[in-house]
Design goal:
By secondary structure, the protein is α+β, with helices and mostly antiparallel strands. It is built from seven helices and five strands, in the order ααβββββααααα. The chain has two domains: 74 residues, no CATH class; 88 residues, no CATH class. The longest helix is centred in the C-terminal third of the chain and has 25 residues. The protein is elongated, with a radius of gyration of 19 Å.
Amino acid sequence: MNYRENLERKVISLSNNKEWDMAVAEWDVVGVEEDDSSSTTCTCGKHGLKYIFTIQNTENGNFLSPIGSECINRFGRDDLRKDATAYQQYLFLLNYYKKYKYLELKSDVFSKKLLKMLFEKGAFKPTQYNKNNPRNDYEFLVSMFNKRSAISDKQQKRVNAIMVTEIVPFIRKKLEVGQQ
């Protein structure tokens, strides 16, 4: 059996739908780890994974891991590929903070998808400054991330405040408990 056949057999066995084209629609990315030794073997049988993803079936709750990004791409779902990329960026963000102890809103560290993931994971907290609505801070950071012109001093101060009071504590907590 080849890698693709191994992957299809495993995914279908853990899916409600028993046809590949339908089964792939049941899965979402829920986690990623980095294997510095690249010694992990994918579900398909391919050796040497650097990023070890965990995916979960949204219909029956089954998990599948380890799975690599190449196999996730074989699902043929752009949304799943983008989610996998966001999880890799999230892992990069954790490692970046661990190394530099500092974060700033720049494209080599953040993306819109990563900001959304951070929002969904609860990184943004209700505060008096966001009118007790974390979505306000999330949407502000997205607008600053997308901004093509220079950010004003006032806007930069707000970006910095959100980083220091919301994102950094969230990252620190994740690093302390070793969670993804």
